[in-house]
Give the backbone structure.
Amino acid sequence: MNRTERYLKRATLGLWGRRRREAQMELRGIVEDKLWRFEHLGLTPDEAERRALAELGPARAVAGGLSRVHIVPVGVQGALLLGVLGMLGVQVVASAAGVRATMQMPSYGKCNFDEAFVKSLPAQEQQAARNYLTRVGRSSVEALCRETAPGLLTYLKIDDFLGALKSAGVSVTPKDGSKSQYRYLLKFPGEVFPIDFDFSKIGAGIVKQDGDYIEAGLLISFLKEYFSFPISIRGVENPTLRISDVNVQLGTATTPFRAANVLAPVVTEQLRVDQPEQFKVLIKENGVDTGRFYARIGTGPDSGAKRGVSLTVSAPDNTFYGVLLSQYNPKAPGMHSDLYQIAIRPAQSGRLWLGSGLEPTRLVGSFADLQKAHTGGGQVALLLKITSGGDLRDVKYEIVPPAQVQLVPARP
Amino acid sequence: MDANLLRGHLDLILLGALGGGARYGSQIISEVEDQTQGYFQFREGSLYPALHRLEKQGWVRGEFQVLPRGGSPVKFYALTAAGQSELRRRREEFARFTQAVGTVLEGA
């Protein structure tokens, strides 16, 4: 481990999971920025590194400052303990009735880019979207969208979700005077302060059916951001979402919910943090490089059906795997050569069933190989075994060597 | 400069520095130092926790971006709408405070 890495490790002691990785990423960017500056001033790399770290100050001081900001409050430390008890099988708070779920194409996946769609975007993006549609032509953009539209996403009924929280002891109060009909104060058992939570901030994630539904992946992302509690999910079909010591069953017998579909965005976020170099694609706006990077990673939803291409694995039932695929579109190679797809699947009798549309021709054994194969075209896959789901902020995975997996083509 | 003065007004200084647009840590430091001709000198060890605190309060939003030189991304911070109102509120409060102190000193 080099000097900078040792410093980053010490400067983020006390943080854990995603917060720690992000703090390290931020500090690493600062150190590199200083290195670049000092080397241009004529310092040797070694001198530049020493000076850069000296400017940042003692690692212990940085760690102390960051811990004070991010440290877990005393009330939550109790919840962490309860979380451990939960893992041991002790049910602390009884779960309530299930949250009804529905699978739908998201509004952007319907590929109807009319003015209503543009107005559904954040205000600061609307004009850029209008300009893009005018420049490229709405019909061309819609056709392009249909080629790569994401699959169905899972939505959860907001009223059911709030009802389940209430039944589990959470105080749920609409926020007085709020312009948003979706803003609530959520006070968890044992906590002193309520959390101000606004479902409408989840962007275009709300759809209307027999009530308002929120996209499950976005909901989990927001819960992770708003709450400092441990959040975990257990089970495959109609799983239990555990927030602090509160359990909420997602899905019902008539409106089932599959955990894989909420784990996909969680694993995607983790991949972006862990492998920033692998998922960087320069974003252009009106043909001009913006300097921002973002590789699109679509989601292959899990329906539970045993069909399509499958992979043989040696693992107990319900062990989760992530299949990361390069998504090469031969009809628009220039436009979509940087799109990936991720499919989270539970092992079922030694098989992972990918379902329709996901048809890798071979497996690779590293992120670098996936990227190489990707730029060369064709659909290849990298198999990741999800090794820890203790907290959704700290999902761990390991690459499964291709030699340990057999790719079984779809039955005709 | 009395370090307590900086500590007491750190949030206002940071919010003010971000009032002109998104910046990353080193930019904030050099801009504040330039603008105040070196009067305010940050210790970086205290800057990043302070930025994280403002982010947690919802007053700034951080986003990783890669600089044109390449390499690891740096975290740019920008004021949120809540941060802009907070900046306005604190600016007014600070103006009232300095006016009040000025009045007392004039009478001394």
Q: What stands out?
A: The first helix of chain A runs from residue 3 to 11.
